[in-house]
Amino acid sequence: MENFFYETRSKLHKNPELALEEYETARYIRNFLDNLEIEYEEIGTSTLALFKGKEDLWLGFRADIDALPLQEENEVEYKSKVNGKMHACGHDGHTTNLLYFAKWLKEQMDSGVELKKSIMLIFQAGEEGKGGARFIAQSDIFKNKKFEGIFAMHVNPTLEEGKIAIAHGALSFQNINLDIEIVGKGCHGAQPHQGIDSILVGAKLVEAYQSIVSRNIDPLKTVIVTIGSFKAGEVRNVIPEKVNILGTIRLIDTSLIEFIRERVTSINEGLERAFGVKINMNFMPFYPPVINSEDLYKIVESSIPEDQIVRDIRLTGSEDFSFYLQNGNKGFMFLLGVRNEEKGFINPLHSPKFDFDPNTLRYGFEVFKNILEKMNVI
């Protein structure tokens, strides 16, 4: 097991591919399944491995397979060989774990173990910003199956190595993407009265958006407004015509979405009237929150040794695993701790120095295996 985890994760880590471009990764996964004579279906660069059981009642297990546009700074033998691309969110580990799970399942079936229920292993493309789960969740091969539960694991470097975090209800936040263009009137910096200063309006817009959280939302309800990009102009002595702003809003209570849309629209319209600019906005709710099933919470909790459990953790980030949980499907995502200060595994997800010990994946595999037993699959 340890050699498998190290070697497989190393191969994947050396060859990262970005969201919906995982052609070689998909080929690697499919060759692996072919060699084991495991049936699968293809949806773009996603791969769905199918294990038919006695009943046409399904359990799903998902791993995301894509990497990030980062230059790796770790000096390790399995360092990324692709300039500007890196597995900095642990998806190489998720994929490794699910491949080992596939191998173990096939060995069980070859040894005469009969699956009482059917299993789908989802090697999913495009989690990082592309919502790759949607394409699978909307496919006939997924929609036409009755799922008793869909499960996923995500590595987490804030948790001690081997700890497993579980949450009642909401695990991650809804995210809303904001694309904003402010159109003023460009002019010479020495003659500002001849123009309309889009940068000044942009600064007021950023400040006003933060007031939505501090003055319009119940303090007991968590909402996060982040402006991550503010681009305007090229030279010091020209007031530019346009400002482009990118941001996100994150929340758990989705009933607030329309209220927040109304508030940002009202702020934009007020600034338009006050300064004579034009503000164009795309307000785009994207990944829904991951809401863990209460029924499956009990199953997962009983699948983890008590001394490994960390309870009621929350993530303010977003996860497209939530798309599988639409239309009445029950699901559950848990977090696997990979932090080890002695080994130097201390850096956060999406860091160019993120790394972990792949042998830690054995704890995730054990949870997946125990879930099958608790749900009377084997």
UniProtKB/TrEMBL annotation:
Residues 176-267 form the Peptidase M20 dimerisation domain. Signal peptide: none annotated. Gene3D superfamilies: 3.30.70.360, Zn peptidases. Pfam families: M20_dimer, Peptidase_M20. NCBIfam families: amidohydrolases. This is Amidohydrolase. The lineage of its organism: Bacteria, Fusobacteriati, Fusobacteriota, Fusobacteriia, Fusobacteriales. InterPro entries: Amidohydrolase, Bact_exopeptidase_dim_dom, Peptidase_M20, Peptidase_M20_dimer.
